[in-house]
Amino acid sequence: MTISEVSELYGLSPDTLRYYERVGMIPPVNRTPSGLRDFTELDCRWVELAKCMRGAGLPVEVMIEYVRLVQQGDRTIEARRDLLVEQRVHLLAQKVAIENMLEKLNYKIGRYEEAVETSVLSWDPEEV
Fold first, then answer.
1. The pLDDT of residue 127 is above 70
2. Which of 5, 76, 86, 126 could bond to 1 as cystine, CB 3.0-4.6 Å?
């Protein structure tokens, strides 16, 4: 697949795909004899993983380290697992923080919906 096709498929700009490759977030992509990127199915799976991990908020450095470990072979399986476990811990903490924020927002939205329906907002000065 061309970079344009991969760009359209994953909703990432060609510049983003080039960046992912340049910094090592995805392994080097095969090239045609004329030097154009020729994404294979495996390359696309790497792009999909990078997009997923970035979408989840994982740092670029983590993805680069993961790719580096994969490229070193089976001797890094434990390190890869540990890296992913650590990231899962961070994501679960973020999930708790997001759930807490959603709970607060839902409460506030409910208060404003009640005020809209009754045209009265009984505002507690202690409530921010």
1. no
2. 5
Buried b (16+ CB within 10 A) or exposed e, 35-72: eebebeeebbebbeebbebbeeebeeebbbebbebeee
- pTM of the full structure: 0.76
Structural domain spans, the chain: 3-71
- Contact predicate 38/1, CB 8 Å: yes
Structure confidence by residue, pLDDT tens digits, 64-87: 999 999 999 999 999 999 999 999
Contact (Cβ atoms closer than 8 angstroms) between residue 67 and residue 27: yes
CATH number of the domain at 3-71, out of 1.10.1660.10, 1.10.1040.10, 3.40.50.850, 3.40.50.300? Answer: 1.10.1660.10
